[in-house]
Design brief:
Elements (H helix, E strand, L loop, with lengths): L1 H16 L14 H49 L5 H42 L6 H45 L5 H23 L3 H4 L5 H6 L4
Helix pairs in contact: 1-3, 2-3, 3-4, 4-5
């Protein structure tokens, strides 16, 4: 209920800002505060959309995980009965591992954009006259900044898992292609997937420490702004 009331209050504020009514004067000079508010509103709308998409992504990965867990169980049962080769069981295991890593990344991505949107909500309340403390807004922003960095290692692990799955799938496709069960075009597609997966993994691994090199201002530095 509290969240709903807050959302309604923010919607009312944003609705007032995004009004389609024409300004009273066509040549009114723009103030810094007006510019900041409009930029903030635009960012808020963007993070609101990203939050929705992040929730959808979590649900999508969760559904894929549940589906592939069932496939893994079926493949394991068939392997024990010597009905499928070991490599099919290995592929199912690697797909399950990739899904699990993806779910962690999706959940942390949702945490990041949710924190950013929460910060935008606090700023909307501030402009609407609701008391908001510097400490409160900083803590909300910092949660988002930290979540954005913390998902980095998990993204690398997820891409590593994807590469392992793609490589094993290519190996199996090569075996089936030699028997005439997989077309050359399908084999080439699998080869391209491996290249993409490896590049994605290596690039993310190379940039893993960059997030931590970005300056995150301390609360003390923020408190000192405009008070010197």
């Amino acid at each position: 209920m509290r969240r709903m009331k807050r959302a309604l209050a923010v919607a009312a504020v944003l609705g007032g800002w995004i009004s389609l009514s024409l300004p009273a004067q066509a040549d009114t000079p723009l103030t810094n505060e007006q510019l900041a508010v409009m930029m903030f509103v635009d960012q808020g709308r963007s993070y609101g959309y990203q939050t929705m998409m992040a929730r959808i992504q979590v649900e999508t990965v969760q559904a894929e995980l549940e589906r592939d867990q069932a496939i893994l169980q079926q493949t394991e049962d068939l392997f024990r009965k010597n009905a499928v080769p070991l490599i099919d069981f290995e592929i199912a295991q690697l797909k399950d591992a990739w899904n699990r890593k993806q779910l962690i990344v999706a959940q942390k991505s949702l945490e990041y954009v949710s924190a950013e949107y929460a910060a935008m909500t606090l700023m909307a309340e501030h402009f609407a006259g609701v008391p908001v403390t510097v400490e409160q807004l900083y803590a909300t922003f910092r949660k988002g900044w930290d979540a954005g960095c913390e998902k980095g290692p998990d993204e690398v692990e997820a891409m590593k898992a994807w590469a392992a799955y793609a490589e094993k799938s290519l190996e199996r496709a090569g075996q089936l292609n030699a028997r005439g069960h997989v077309s050359d075009s399908e084999l080439q597609d699998r080869q391209a997937r491996v290249k993409i997966a490896r590049a994605n993994y290596l690039q993310r691994e190379a940039g893993l420490d960059r997030c931590r090199t970005v300056l995150f201002p301390t609360l003390e530095q923020v408190m000192a702004i405009g008070r010197k």
